[in-house]
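Reading a protein record of the kind used here takes only a little practice. To see the layout at work, look at the sequence and tokens printed below.
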Amino acid sequence: MRAARFPRSGRLHRGYHCKQVDSFIDSVELALGGAMAPPTAAEVRRAGFELARGGYDTTAVDVALDALEERVLVAQAMVAGRRGRLDPASEVDFLKNELAGPYMRRFPRAGGLRRGYDVDGVDEFVDRVLSALDASAPAFSVEDIRSAPFRPRRGGYREDAVDEMLDRVVELLLVLPRHGGARP
């Protein structure tokens, strides 16, 4: 029997399903070792696990997944070669252009009867991110982006579109220090 990789939640509390977490992390480790094609950072970021009584502590697993995501980004940058290397300045410019759309029209809408993210909340957060990218405001951390709370609203911005753009901001924040750039 294998020792637990992470602390467990109590028997009466729910945590991430241990076998699912172990299997996912083992497969990513194998891929990073060259046994197969590595997952993308977005795939690591979006990994989800069932909740089970006595499972792994969710906070400990989330911290480990954040570190694993950063390792995957580094591996992707190393494999990309000269042509595929990230140009931090152009990536910042691209994100500024994508996020600087008209207020209340920055992302596609979920539709009148479907729930999405609150438009005002997202737009206010995006304005703060844009200010940080312009270096005219305090810096953001990866955790600030990941934990941005958006209220659900009918007819709001589509969650997948907002999440995808914020994933790019997270990837930029993780890669910038390795390329000598300052964090926004």
Q: What stands out?
A: Strands lie at 14-16, 51-53, 115-117, 152-154. Residues 88-179 form one domain. The chain is about 50% helix and 5% strand.
